[in-house]
Amino acid sequence: MAYNHNARQTVIDFITNNIQSGTWQPGDKIWSENEFCTNLNVSRIAVRDAISNLTAISVRKKIRGSGTYVENLDNASLEGTRYFSLGLENVLELMEFRYYLEPHCAELFAERATEEEIQELEDCYYSMLRHQNSDEKDYCSNRFHHLIALGTKNSFIIKITEYLDENMLCHQILLSKNVQKKNFQVGATYHYKILQAIKARDKEMAGVYCRYHIRLGMELYRSVLEKQKAEKSKMTD
User: Fold this and answer.
1) For residue range 55-103, what is the model confidence (pLDDT) as tens digits?
2) Orientation angle between helical segments 155-199 and 136-150, nearest 10 degrees
3) In angstroms, rounded to a whole number, what is the distance separating the alpha carbons of residues 92 and 66?
4) Contact 43, 37 (CB under 8 A)
5) Could you give the 3-state DSSP secondary structure of residue 178?
6) Do residues 205 and 198 touch, judged by C-beta distance below 8 A?
7) pTM score > 0.70 for this model?
8) How far is CA 69 from the centre of its chain?
9) I need a labelling partner for 183 at 20 to 30 A (CA). Which of 35, 171, 192, 205 fits?
10) 3-state DSSP assignment of residue 231
11) Which residues are within 8 A (CB) of 111 and not within 5 positions of it... i.e. 6 or more apart?
């Protein structure tokens, strides 16, 4: 069978979907080359190329004489984290990172964004409000912060944000799933405050509101984690 890049991507997508769905957990052994070739109708070269790509960014690890296994998220490279679904504890770590980065992004956006970019941000905010009763609100909320990162005009911030975009969305969905209405109310309130500060070109207040918004989100997450730990403790007693 002739090798092509689409076949390699087919294998990568298949492996990624199995990890993100929880079918393959960290430490699980994945299919052999023969199983990939037979089930996905791809060549051995495509399978090896896909595995090599994912191993290079620490999503997979090969053990000589044993096979290929799903790596632990903690060992994944920055790029590799995009291929994992996040648990609540991982998301809390991501929020700690956001707490230091995103307020500065809001400040830079207020200073550097064009009027067209500010209008796009405002449109995104009102789209989130319109879709508050559907899953679309999570995509709008995630896009709101993504647009702010793009508007910083800082190439490093943009690249990091693009790397983490899937994890950021996963973070938003998990928070929405676990704290639902309260999370939406917090998001809607502080997205509006951030937006108004940006429209006024008040970079200091844009940063303050963004920082407080993320801090409240972290508090919501911690409450969910504590509740889960308490429930697990009751089950083991």
Assistant:
1) 776 666 777 777 888 887 667 665 666 666 666 667 778 888 889 999 9
2) 110
3) 34
4) yes
5) helix
6) no
7) no
8) 23
9) 205
10) helix
11) 201, 203
